[in-house]
Design brief:
The complex is a heterotrimer of chains A (130), B (403) and C (309).
Chain A: H1 7-23, H2 25-33, E1 37-43, E2 47-52, E3 56-59, E4 68-73, H3 74-82, H4 87-92, E5 96-99, H5 102-108, H6 113-125
Parallel strand pairs in A: 1-4
Antiparallel strand pairs in A: 1-2, 2-3, 4-5
Chain B: H1 16-33, H2 37-42, H3 50-59, H4 76-88, H5 92-111, H6 114-120, E1 132-135, H7 148-151, E2 159-163, E3 166-177, E4 184-191, E5 200-206, E6 212-214, E7 228-239, E8 243-244, H8 250-286, E9 288-289, E10 292-293, H9 298-326, E11 328-329, H10 334-358, H11 369-376, H12 386-397
Parallel strand pairs in B: 1-4, 2-4
Antiparallel strand pairs in B: 2-3, 3-7, 4-5, 5-8, 6-7, 9-10
Helix pairs in contact in B: 1-3, 1-4, 4-5, 4-8, 4-9, 5-6, 5-8, 8-9, 8-10, 8-11, 9-10, 10-11, 10-12
Chain C: H1 10-24, H2 29-38, E1 43-46, E2 49-55, H3 61-77, H4 83-88, E3 104-110, E4 116-123, H5 142-147, H6 151-155, E5 166-174, H7 181-201, E6 208-214, H8 218-223, E7 228-233, E8 255-261, H9 265-280, H10 284-294, E9 298-303, H11 304-308
Parallel strand pairs in C: 5-6, 7-9
Antiparallel strand pairs in C: 1-2, 2-3, 3-4, 4-5, 6-8, 7-8
Helix pairs in contact in C: 1-3, 7-9, 9-10
The chains are: A alpha+beta (130), B alpha+beta (403), C alpha+beta (309).
């Protein structure tokens, strides 16, 4: 049974999550300075969005390839954000795939901290089972 | 005249830092490696040339892929690959000493464990050259430990047992490059009572601890500048902090490690092919028969053209695999396996063809070519035989990319 | 004497031991070769010790990491840094971000082995040039943040002084495994000569040194080169328990802020030559005793509560 029942529910949760990041000063400053853009592709249900400091969170794929592209199922994303699955293991097992210059990716990961802290609450508010 | 050593061809313009590194390494090869190749090849199997390693280390070759925050060069697989092509165009054994150290560093990098990284990666950044190694193969389990479906059939595999805050490791690993000199090994062992792929666990094991025994050096046909030997572990105590990515994840880490490293092995094979080709090419220009240089004879021209074409193709494939590896996590299986499959094969073909061009002289040590022929067979053994690579490639071809 | 030692978990102790073991294996003689090529005047050799004086921006990143690793390892050894923080932050060196490009690093290396055996840092302000020390908006030096004081106002100095003329003297340390008292003395002398060289070569840029120290350790080093030092007692140094250097203000005896002005350049040169003469002696211990008598500095003690009143 997938964690997210509908693509609308999944989009609601992940877009709110990245809204928090865009509003975080550290993330915004670094994203602007390094021209960071992110393209998120989730499956089951299928949800796609892209994020950058200028536009914030936008549904669908970006017009130009993003600097970092991440693909994984919604269930894997949920487990990662809840802290039940570690990123290196998700990557090593192919459950998460990232395309992008690896040093940039490694610099990007610590910037996600504020979102990790808020995810359980956002998921609960959206009615996502734990 | 076309310089077949030139990697800036067509699709790929090397980034500035990689191009500069390549130039530095090429100079090192000409001034330090080449003059010592023959002596190192003829030396006793257990002899090791630390002078070459010291200079290689000063250039950063042993820390090329280590992130800058740990004192490394942070160059990525592309930087390592082009460097190893240069080195193996003179001596594949020297290249593999460096490549095998990368292999030992890979699980630490892949683990994403900052404490493990802080404890081990800075080791490579001091004055002295430090080597690492990777211990997978066993007496009765070779490919069985590289193919997940076969792992359950692996018998008498090295074991690990949890004992409080430590694991106790028992077993024997064979055919390990750098085992004689490495400060630590990445080691794969099965949790006791959990045979098969799900039980395989990766550990980082310092080799100066009680219970580790380094075995004798193997007397190899080729790659004689690097030392291959074995490690025996008798109740070796390894702290729990040294597990890579948790118990039972050894197979996925091992596969990731291979995917990361295969582009560099393809580069080594490309370098071996290039080294053999360069000798034959020069010979074919100097040797006159029937009133003209050998390369002006059609049969010989055909051989030379085929050899050059294969080297070009192998190079483009490993560059593509290296760039993809540096821009995708997890490291891609398809690009790196196909690059290695092709490069390993053409290394043998090109070396053999070079020998046919040179005739009797190709068979004599003094002309340097027969070493390349011997070395050419090495890469098809380590980091995935053609059979293992075929399985990895077809697995990738039929992967439905399902999440 | 406040010697309450923090308690650590087994894993924290193990991690710290691993970092200590890591740094025991590392040497950085290559830094000598690099500096000898890049800035030969920055290296001095004496009695098997080589000392480099270089700014952060002149030190290749790999060696900077090595130096900061030495700093962390030695502070771990003496219990001045929190093993909890070291492990939680996965540190193997002091964070590179804690250094400023204009900070000076005086590094003494055993020439034969390449091992770092002594170190002293002169940290620069993060202000732009020309900011008066008496400007309330200026950046605070670390000693001021820890002790919660304005050092210059506390000692009643600072008129006409700008922050870019001040350095914070920090991390005076010897490799813990050096037991030979003669070698320890030589290392101290090389570090002090390094300090002198930096002040002379950058004259008149550096006019004041501040910091904090225990009276029987670092302050002694300043006094034996004849500096007149002001110390401030009555402060309450504190760092939050989750700060890396929290233990340094828990395990040590009284740690007091100090202020010392560089004397006139002719005096500095004269003392530098004198100390160098001592360092060159075979019987350095006896020569140092004479030096302490000859160059004896003074301490003026300021009570912070009284000066603030």
């Amino acid at each position: 049974m997938p964690v997210f029942e509908t693509k609308e529910q999944a989009y609601d949760v992940f877009s709110r999550l990245f809204d928090i990041l865009v509003e975080d000063e550290t993330f915004a400053t670094k994203a602007t300075a390094q021209n960071l853009s992110l393209h998120l592709v989730h499956t089951k249900p299928d949800v796609e969005l892209h994020v950058n400091a200028d536009e914030g969170v936008v549904a669908g794929p970006p017009a130009q390839p993003a600097v970092i592209r991440i693909k994984m199922s919604c269930d894997v994303a949920h487990a990662l954000w809840m802290g039940d699955l570690l990123v290196p293991l998700a990557l090593a097992t192919g459950r998460m795939r990232i395309k992008g210059n690896i040093p940039k990716v490694l610099e990007f990961v610590p910037l996600l901290r504020p979102a990790f802290d808020r995810y359980p609450e956002i998921a609960a508010e959206a009615g996502v089972a734990g | 005249m076309i310089d077949t050593a030139l990697p800036n061809i067509g699709l790929y313009e090397l980034p500035d830092d990689v191009a500069e590194f390549k130039g530095t390494v090429a100079k090192f090869v000409d001034t330090t490696v080449r003059p010592r190749v023959s002596a190192n090849d003829l030396a006793d199997a257990a002899d090791f040339d630390w002078e070459i390693l010291r200079e290689a280390h000063d250039l950063g070759l042993l820390r090329a892929v280590i992130p800058r925050e740990y004192g490394g060069l942070g160059l990525g697989i592309l930087g390592v690959a082009v460097a190893l092509e240069e080195i193996s165009s003179a001596c594949a054994g020297t290249a593999l000493t460096i490549g095998a150290t990368l292999l030992g560093q890979a699980p630490v990098l892949i683990s994403g464990d900052p404490q493990l990284q802080a404890r081990f990666l800075p080791l490579f950044c001091g004055d002295s050259p430090v080597l690492a190694c990777n211990a997978v193969t066993e007496e009765l389990a070779g490919c069985d430990l590289l193919i997940p479906e076969y792992a359950a059939a692996a018998t008498e595999v090295m074991t690990a047992r949890r004992d409080g805050d430590f694991y106790l490791l028992n077993g024997r690993k064979r055919f390990i490059t750098n085992a004689k000199q490495a400060v630590y090994a990445s080691v794969y062992a099965n949790m006791e009572g959990s045979p098969g792929a799900t039980g395989l666990t990766g550990f980082i094991v310092p080799l100066d601890v009680d219970g580790v025994e380094r075995g004798p050096v193997a007397d190899k046909m080729g790659y004689r500048a690097c030392l291959g030997s074995e490690l025996t572990f008798r109740d070796v105590r390894v702290p729990v902090e040294n597990v890579v990515a948790g118990e039972g994840n050894g197979m996925v880490i091992n596969i990731q490690q291979m995917n990361m490293a295969r582009a560099t092995v393809a580069a080594i094979s490309t370098g071996v092919a290039r080294g053999a080709f360069e000798i034959a090419r020069q010979w074919s220009a100097d040797r006159v028969q029937g009133g003209r240089a050998l390369y002006r004879h059609q049969f010989s021209a055909r051989k030379i053209a085929e050899m050059a074409t294969k080297i070009q193709a192998a190079r483009l494939m490993y560059l593509n695999a290296a760039v993809t590896t540096d821009n995708e996590i997890p490291a891609p299986a398809f690009e790196s396996a196909t690059a290695k499959l092709f490069a390993d094969r053409i290394a043998i073909e090109v070396a053999e063809e070079a020998m046919s061009l040179m005739g009797a002289r190709g068979y004599l040590r003094e002309y340097g070519l027969e070493k390349f022929v011997r070395d050419a067979f090495g890469a098809r053994i380590y980091e995935g035989t053609p059979e293992v690579l075929a399985l990895a490639i077809t697995e990738a071809l039929y992967d439905d990319d399902d999440f | 004497m406040n010697v309450s030692t923090p308690s650590y978990s087994t894993h924290e102790i193990r991690y710290a031991d691993d970092i200590l073991r890591l740094h025991e294996q590392l040497s950085f003689g290559g830094l000598l070769d690099h500096m000898a090529r890049a800035r030969p005047a920055a290296v001095s050799h004496r009695h098997g010790l080589a000392t480099i004086c270089a700014r952060t921006e002149d030190i290749p990143h790999r060696y900077l990491v090595g130096i900061l690793g030495f700093r962390l390892a030695e502070y771990l050894r003496v219990g001045f840094v929190s093993k909890t923080v070291v492990r939680a932050s996965s540190l193997f060196c002091e964070p590179v971000t804690s250094t400023h490009r204009n900070d000076w690093h005086i590094v003494t290396i055993e020439a034969a082995t390449g091992r770092i055996v002594g170190y002293l840092s002169l940290s620069a302000t993060t202000d732009r040039p020309g900011v008066p020390v008496l400007d309330p908006r200026r950046s605070r030096f670390d000693v001021e943040n820890v002790h919660g004081i304005d050092v210059f106002r506390a000692v009643g100095m600072g008129a006409g002084l700008t922050t870019d003329r001040v350095v914070e003297v920090k991390r005076l340390m010897h490799r813990g495994s050096v037991a030979d008292p003669v070698l320890k003395l030589r290392i101290s002398l090389e570090l002090l000569l390094g300090l002198g060289r930096v002040v002379l070569d950058s004259w008149p840029q550096i006019r004041v040194g501040i910091g904090d120290a225990e009276s029987n350790v670092a302050l002694r080093h300043l006094l034996i080169i004849g500096l007149d030092v002001y110390t401030v007692s009555g402060t309450e140094p504190r760092l939050a328990a989750d700060e890396l250097f929290h233990p340094a203000y828990v395990v040590r005896d009284k740690v007091q802020p100090f202020y010392a002005e560089a004397p006139d350049v002719a005096v500095i040169r004269q003392r530098y030559d004198y100390v160098r003469g001592v360092a060159e002696q075979q019987k350095v211990m006896a020569a140092a005793v004479g030096m302490a008598r000859e160059l004896r500095g003074t301490i003026t003690r300021i009570d912070y509560q009284e000066s603030a009143a």
